[in-house]
Every structure is written in structure tokens, then in C-alpha cells.
Amino acid sequence: MAVTDSASVTVPAPYDGEARESVARDSAVHEGILRRQSARESAARTYARALPIVPVRARGLTIEGADGRRYLDCLSGAGTLALGHNHPVVLEAIRKVIDSGAPLHVLDLATPVKDAFTTELFRTLPAGLADRARVQFCGPAGTDAVEAALKLVRTASGRSGILAFTGAYHGMTAGALEASGGAQDVRVTRLPYPQDYRCPFGIGGPRGAEIAARWTRSLLDDTKSGVPRPAGMILEPVQGEGGVIPAPDAWLRRMRSLTEDRSIPLIADEVQTGVGRTGAFWAVEHSGVVPDVMVMSKAIGGSLPLAVIVYRDDLDVWPPGAHAGTFRGNQLAMAAGAATLSYVRENRLAERAGELGTRMLGQLQHLAEDFSCIGDVRGRGLMIGVELVDPEGAPDTGPSGLADAPLLGAPAATPLPAAPDLAAAVRDACLDRGLIVELGGRHSSVVRLLPPLTITDEQAAAVVDRFADALVAVARARHA
Questions:
Q1: Cβ partners under 8 Å of residue 476, min gap 6
Q2: How many whole angstroms separate alpha carbon 462 and alpha carbon 349?
Q3: What residue ranges do the domains of the chain occupy?
Q4: What is the maximum span of the chain, computed from C-alpha positions, in angstroms?
Q5: For the whole model, what pTM was predicted?
Q6: Which of 14, 38, 250, 293 fits 20 for a cystine, CB–CB 3.0-4.6 Å?
Q7: Contact, 176 vs 139, CB < 8 A?
Q8: What is the pLDDT of residues 19-72, one digit of tens each?
Q9: Do residues 471 and 369 touch, judged by C-beta distance below 8 A?
């Protein structure tokens, strides 16, 4: 089947002998690379298992594989590619540094490229932080920045405990994993993260968020809670890997008030939500919250590895060398990042993401009316999740049966059992139709859409159409 998008030509079907030979050759290259990857790389590889493609060219939303097929990429490097693949302003910024003869590796020395990046980054920060902020360049990945943030608040407070939330994901290094959902560490206290569809209190909505906030307050103020005054609280304004769950604005303001009143630094993990993704430049801006520490990576490097933390100057008490990283001076990433930050800001792509995301959410919610396997559609801006469920399964009341007995107010919609097998089948069917998506959520049953902020209206319509077609195909196959 030929696959197209609004920015590319159709990949032709092999009608003549020469075309057939070319397709066979491309296919052999594709299969050979995948076979060698499977034989050589570790069992820890993830995306490659679910997405057996070999990208060789890319531009904007479109990827072309070694087998000649084209795909609409709604994974975007797990949210890294704010401007999509190989955006001209990013390529030009990289070429300019290379052609200038500037050093590419400078540790933490000052350079014009670094100064330009820092200036542009500070220009985008929430009001109330930029005028008293400090920045620490970390290792190349977001998890390195999380480690730095945890170390910073522990050093500044003299305390060791951390407050984190169920369903969180902060990275793969030891400290970041400790603060992620599913890990167990005595220094990390788990708090309920509010959500509507699978509310831990069986009620959802503002009342569920209020109960979650009161739970946190009680834990902090009860001298017998077993939780001593922590060094900090870390949260995601929208849980990404946890299933695309936006934090209610009122709840987030409560977390800010609770931590501020008790001199507990608040760390906002904006690794995936930052740089316009959610409809604001930084997701905390939706609620008007100014955190004490912001963790940033992914899109700030313009597709190249870069990670920083930005924090209040009074927390800057660590001695020289307290946190370092050999590759924290990546000049190409800083140039690409400065160009990306500037382009998003000047072209108001955050606002565009909010408008287009709202439209796509509406279209997907309308789609849910025709597909009983869609349990919930949620998100913010161009960070969208579709949770797939088993429509024939018994209602999922959870271990405590709270969905059958909501604590207060009107009950939330009783969730149906998660359907990870169905979600995997839909992901595969999307790939067959030239659409790259990935799964997330506590049960890997949430189809996640993270298109670049430069996606056009026509491409957005194509994404929804291909997703709908994949749902129809999977539904037919399951009832055949």
C-alpha cells in the first residue's frame, strides 16, 4: 500500500521490473540492518522492538525508512523534536558553528554559543524565576538533570527525603529511578497524583484533586506520619510516560503553596512538557506556578543531547565540582537549542500547539463515541493520550473497590480494564498505515501522540485519520 503525507510524494507501488528490483534491494538492506541490530544490541532496547523501521531520511513530521516507506512521526524522539526532523533553522545553526571553527567540546567554559543559548533560555523562563535564576549544565540526558536537581535540594536543605508521585517517570539513573513510579526507596515518599479516569479515590475531577492535596498536607503536618521534612518535591506538570495525565491547575497551585509554606523546594520536571509542547512555553505556566527548580532536556537541545536545571539563586550553595559532566559543554546542542527556543518563541508555536491540540483532542473524543475500546482521551497541547480498554471486561474497581464506593460527591466514570494487547495491536496497525506512535501508562495501554509543534492542519487530520483506520482494522480482525 502506498503511504503519503501532505508534505511528501507517494511511494509508488512496484509495477515494472526495475521498480520491483529496487524495492527488493531496499527491503534486503532494511531486513539486514534489523537482523544485525537484534543480534548485536542488548535486551534492554525498547523502541526498536515495537518500531521495526530503519530511518534513513527525515524532514519535519516525515521519516523515510531504508525500505522506501514513509511515516508520519508522532513520537518525535520521545518529544525531543519540537520543530520536527532537520528543521532548516536548526541545521543552519549547527552548520554555522561547524564552519566557524569554534571548539565543539569545552567542558563548562564560557563561549559565545553558550552565552547565546543561556540568554535565550532565560528569556523564556516563567516570570518570577528568570530575574533570580542560576543555571547548571548537566550531562547530556534529562535523567542527569534530575540527578542534579535532587542533589541540589538535598545540599541546600541539609535533608535527604524526596516527595514524588505515583505514575511518575524521571529517568533511568539511580536517583531518577528512585523518584519514578514503581521504584522502592526509603528516602522517597509516594503521593497520589490526581487523575480523572483512574482516580485513586474513585471520584476524579476537582474533588479527587482536592482529596489528593489534603492527603499531601496531612502527610507533611502529621508528626506521626513517619515522613520527616523532605529536601524537596518533584513532579511532572503532565505525566508523560505515566499515561499523559495533566495535573489540574488548582492542584498544582496547592502543591506550590504547601511546599512554599514549609520551605520545601518544588522541582518541576519539564523534560518532556517544556518548549511549547503543552500550549504554554513551560507547562507550569498554565497554573501560574513558579517552581524553585526546573529540569529541562529533550527539546531544549534542538534534537541534540543537552540537559540543564534552572533554579533560585538562594539554592546555589554547592561548592565547585559538586555536580559535573564531561559533555555538559555541547556547543552544537547549544546552538541548535538556542535556534529552537527562539523559533518557538518568535513564531508563537506554543499557542499554536494549544489550539491544534485542542482540535485534535476534540476529534479523538468524537472518535471515542464510535469505539467502545477507547476508555479516555486526554492531554494538553500536542501531548495527547488515548487509553484503550476492554469494553467487554468487568469494571476496574481496583483493590479497594473505590470505584464502586466513591468517597465524596458524584462518582467518576467507572474505568474498564486496561487493554495493553489491544493497544499494542493498534500501534502496530498504525505503523502499517505509515503512522508512528508509542505506548505509555501504567498498563502500557495508552497510545501517545507527540507530534512536532510544526505539524500542519493537513498533517494533523492525516494523523487522526490513520489512527481511526487502525482502530477499525484491529476491531475487524478481533471480530473476524
A1: none
A2: 20
A3: 17-79+370-478, 89-346
A4: 79
A5: 0.90
A6: 14
A7: no
A8: 556 666 778 888 889 899 889 989 988 888 888 999 999 999 999 999 999 999
A9: no
Tell me how many degrees the CA angle 439-283-460 measures, rounded to the nearest 5. Answer: 50
Amino acid (1-letter code) at residue 9: V
Helix (H) or strand (E) holding 60: none
Asked: is 17-79+370-478 a CATH 3.90.1150.10 domain? The reply is yes
Question: Cβ(196)–Cβ(168) under 8 Å?
Answer: no
b/e sequence 36-69, b meaning 16+ C-beta within 10 Å: eeeeeeeeeeeeeeebebbeeebebbbbbbbbbb
Which position has the grid cell 499557542? 351
> Which ranges constitute the DSSP H helices of 111-186?
112-124, 142-157, 174-178
Instruction: Identify the CA nearest to 293 among candidates 318, 276, 326.
Output: 318
DSSP 143-163: HHHHHHHHHHHHHHHS---EE
CATH architecture of 89-346: 3-Layer(aba) Sandwich (3.40)
- CA atoms of 366 and 358, how far apart (whole Å): 12
Shared fold status for 17-79+370-478 and 89-346: no
Q: Over the stretch 208-259, which tens digit does the pLDDT of each residue have?
A: 999 999 999 999 999 888 889 999 999 999 999 999 999 999 999 999 999 9
Q: What is the CA radius of gyration of the chain?
A: 23
> How many C-beta atoms surround the C-beta of residue 209 within 10 A?
25
Distance CA 241, CA 177 (A): 13
- Please say whether the beta carbons of 216 and 189 come within 8 A: no
Copy the grid coordinates of residue 294.
Answer: 526546573
DSSP helix/strand/coil, 187? coil
Angle at 170 between CA 416 and CA 75, to 5 degrees: 65
The C-alpha atoms of residue 251 and residue 240 are separated, in whole angstroms, by 18
